[in-house]
DNA sequence: CTAACTGTTATATTTATAGTATAACAGATG
DNA sequence: CATCTGTTATACTATAAATATAACAGTTAG
């Protein structure tokens, strides 16, 4: 699993870490039950602090994306994922709403917006790079 | 224009302000050329500081959503909006990507995700409340 | 002209978050 | 026993967010 971080980004490192792992799970590059590197080794790998990785892992654990065993270390959730809770639906809508509103302001119609979402969906599930042809 | 802020939210006040104004423009509640309240009056109205409003206005101006005249005050962009720049497209995709990835992890298929986007799109353009029936 | 308003700028302070740096603890493993 | 795990605690630095005053320059209504 290759982690790409932008240390100059305004999105926190631990958030970027969470997003990359979640995207890895969505794409299938990270399989259920697959082990993730320890907080220390991953931190050393990408040149950041132990606690930054630990924060990402802890949050992912709280949301049910990973499991943390004292002995085995960290593994991708082998059982069923959290699923569609009401809390999640509200949070998802709150995240999408301002993005859609801006798209409307910039002249995108419904078809164009849906096309973008469709593209991103298949890009993720078919495991393509961001700047794929 | 009614502004609703959540002071306990983790999203900054100036960001919430920007989102509400952009959503107002997308819904048509804010018409092109329509005047917006002055930084001082709006700040007093919603009980926050002058500079917080000014930050939101300045950013909205930089992105072309509003115009600021020394005399007339602040008005909703009367001319054409920014439109589809390459910068915007990349920023939009970067915002959508983690949201879509999480949706996939939680078991949403493409049709379900598109339905959510379609719903939000029409909710915004038809000017409905968040918890509309 | 004066007073009241506009956006703008400058400065200082407080608060919270992000990230780093060490260190130690408890359990598992070879 | 030495080494790895996650976990916790503490302290520090840097940055962003928000507030608090104050002042400046231009506009506008009385």
UniProtKB/TrEMBL annotation, chains A, B:
Which GO molecular-function terms appear in the entry? DNA binding; DNA-binding transcription factor activity
Native source organism of the sequence: Paenibacillus campinasensis
Q: What is this protein called?
A: GntR family transcriptional regulator
- Tell me if Transcription is a UniProt keyword of this record: yes
Q: Where is the HTH gntR-type domain?
A: 11-79
Which InterPro entries does the record cross-reference, listed alphabetically?
Answer: Tscrpt_reg_HTH_GntR (IPR000524), WH-like_DNA-bd_sf (IPR036388), WH_DNA-bd_sf (IPR036390)
What top-level branch of life does the organism fall under?
A: Bacteria
Q: Which UniProt keywords apply?
A: DNA-binding, Transcription, Transcription regulation
């Amino acid at each position: 699993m290759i982690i790409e971080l932008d240390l100059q980004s305004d999105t926190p490192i631990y958030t970027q870490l969470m997003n990359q792992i979640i995207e890895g799970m969505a794409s299938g590059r990270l399989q259920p039950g697959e082990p993730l590197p320890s907080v220390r080794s991953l931190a050393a790998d990408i040149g950041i602090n132990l606690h930054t990785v630990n924060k990402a892992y802890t949050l992912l654990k709280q949301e049910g994306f990973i499991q943390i065993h004292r002995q085995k270390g960290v593994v991708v959730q082998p059982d069923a994922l959290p699923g569609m809770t009401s809390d999640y639906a509200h949070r998802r809508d709150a995240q999408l709403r301002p993005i859609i509103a801006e798209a409307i302001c910039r002249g995108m119609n419904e078809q164009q917006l849906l096309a973008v979402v469709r593209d991103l969906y298949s890009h993720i599930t078919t495991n393509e790079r961001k700047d794929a042809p």
